[in-house]
Amino acid sequence: MAERGDREAFVTLATNDTYALGCLVLGNSLRQRAQTTRKLVVMITPGVTQPMRNQLARVFDMIYDVNLLDSRDAANLQLLGRPDLSVTFTKLHCWRLTMFDKAVFLDADTLVLQNVDELFDREELSAAPDAGWPDCFNSGVFVFRPSEETYDSLLKFAMSQGSFDGGDQGLLNMYFRDWATKDIARHLPFIYNVVSQAFYSYLPAFTQFKDSVKIVHFIGATKPWHHPYNTATKEVTPLPETGHNKDYLQIWWDIFMSFVQPTLDPSLVSTSAPVLASYHMTLFAANHMLFSRMLICVYETDF
Amino acid sequence: MAERGDREAFVTLATNDTYALGCLVLGNSLRQRAQTTRKLVVMITPGVTQPMRNQLARVFDMIYDVNLLDSRDAANLQLLGRPDLSVTFTKLHCWRLTMFDKAVFLDADTLVLQNVDELFDREELSAAPDAGWPDCFNSGVFVFRPSEETYDSLLKFAMSQGSFDGGDQGLLNMYFRDWATKDIARHLPFIYNVVSQAFYSYLPAFTQFKDSVKIVHFIGATKPWHHPYNTATKEVTPLPETGHNKDYLQIWWDIFMSFVQPTLDPSLVSTSAPVLASYHMTLFAANHMLFSRMLICVYETDF
């Protein structure tokens, strides 16, 4: 019989090279910082380049190729005139990972601060409340049981009901609609999915509980890789008005610089792959970059 | 045996005439709009004037005088050097309303949109999650059982532990600390305490569930009475950047103009009582008023 650690996995998703970068930091946070004993899986779509796939293979035990849509799904979606559900469906592929008994999904923009292997003691579907509407769970972190049956059922549900927010969160909340009222054990404590801007709305609670935060989630349009990082001082400078917590951004960058950057495939730092083209840049370029396709904000002070 | 409606009550608190105005609208929302069958109680401190007491007596079944501090509490607080806890303690007085078997506390800046008498089927302590940190409950709406024993125990706890946010919410969350993990029935659905700015953080959920919202809570420094109201058009104009939902503000003002304003004691519309001194004013004055002690923003277009 296989060890429990082989039958349980953390799963994430990258739809392009930029989010793959998030996955690399997330994977390293699970391995290096949180010392997980479980497997790491990354689901990728064709939008992820071959050099980035090689990079992901250094950190993840399994790379699972998914299409934005199955051909079967595409046909159905076309019939229903709902091509917008394709992105929603991508995350649902995680239920097809039936080589695992149980799994924990983590968005590519999450970061694990402390070991969270105890999450595998929870049942499907366990998730933390969404700060915006706490009777909904946030689908950036959830415990699930891979099952083809559940996958098919979710797909059917999606095609008949759609998603009230156009994304996976609305869909999963409608499918697992008794989450808010049925079983307190399926409510993960908020420390497993703290929005990095939480302290803006209720600072005293953040102050009171911050030492117990285990997973942080950089929700919103600005991601950790958008904030300028100074290679001389090794400090990140949070972009104003994003509300991101500097301590969390610093941890993200520390992991990136310690474990991801040193082993980066050289092709990813060339113009052919835009992701890291801006790796060495001036502050001006770093700011400009927010409006371009270049995505990493590292600048050196000796320019 | 007394009817259940006599042994159960909605309870609110006014520490000055301005918040008493909120209580008047809240009380009318419970009676006129939500058609409650339960008793209405307002706790008031000496900061509420006699004319306003008379006004409250028209709506509430019971006016319960409380001091910001008992003399006994004052002595203890002085010993502990924590005079800041006095405001926190004021809300705790609700546990002394032992003429009732069960009660629902509502902050003066809440508004009841639909009948919520079913809340009396819940047990102490039931409350809805706080959007800022959803493992804490928001103490603007909660179900409790009046009990001198609980009151004493809360008081002792407050004096030994203090409150992590300096207010009643931090204190009650520490005292009822198993709320987040013990019993899903003590989690009131969010529709019983929706922050009026909720749609800013997760608009799709607000859109999906807005028809079921039962209680709205105008948290933050700007209250419904701060927004300018035009007596000619009978419309409120939400102050920019407060994020308050116009529909909710309009309901608040409709209740104020229909049930509170017509019966206002004349002394409350004179300069001797500042609360309603600005009742008829120009838009300029209405805006200026935000920086003054005058509190109601009604203006007429024919000035």
Automatic annotation (TrEMBL), chains A, B:
<dbReference type="InterPro" id="IPR050587">
    <property type="entry name" value="GNT1/Glycosyltrans_8"/>
</dbReference>
<protein>
    <recommendedName>
        <fullName>glycogenin glucosyltransferase</fullName>
        <ecNumber>2.4.1.186</ecNumber>
    </recommendedName>
</protein>
<dbReference type="GO" id="GO:0005978">
    <property type="term" value="P:glycogen biosynthetic process"/>
</dbReference>
<keyword id="KW-0808">Transferase</keyword>
<keyword id="KW-0320">Glycogen biosynthesis</keyword>
<keyword id="KW-0464">Manganese</keyword>
<dbReference type="InterPro" id="IPR029044">
    <property type="entry name" value="Nucleotide-diphossugar_trans"/>
</dbReference>
<dbReference type="Pfam" id="PF01501">
    <property type="entry name" value="Glyco_transf_8"/>
</dbReference>
<comment type="function">
    <text>Self-glucosylating initiator of glycogen synthesis. It catalyzes the formation of a short alpha (1,4)-glucosyl chain covalently attached via a glucose 1-O-tyrosyl linkage to internal tyrosine residues and these chains act as primers for the elongation reaction catalyzed by glycogen synthase.</text>
</comment>
<dbReference type="GO" id="GO:0005737">
    <property type="term" value="C:cytoplasm"/>
</dbReference>
<dbReference type="GO" id="GO:0046872">
    <property type="term" value="F:metal ion binding"/>
</dbReference>
<comment type="similarity">
    <text>Belongs to the glycosyltransferase 8 family. Glycogenin subfamily.</text>
</comment>
<dbReference type="InterPro" id="IPR002495">
    <property type="entry name" value="Glyco_trans_8"/>
</dbReference>
<dbReference type="GO" id="GO:0008466">
    <property type="term" value="F:glycogenin glucosyltransferase activity"/>
</dbReference>
<keyword id="KW-0325">Glycoprotein</keyword>
<keyword id="KW-0963">Cytoplasm</keyword>
<keyword id="KW-0479">Metal-binding</keyword>
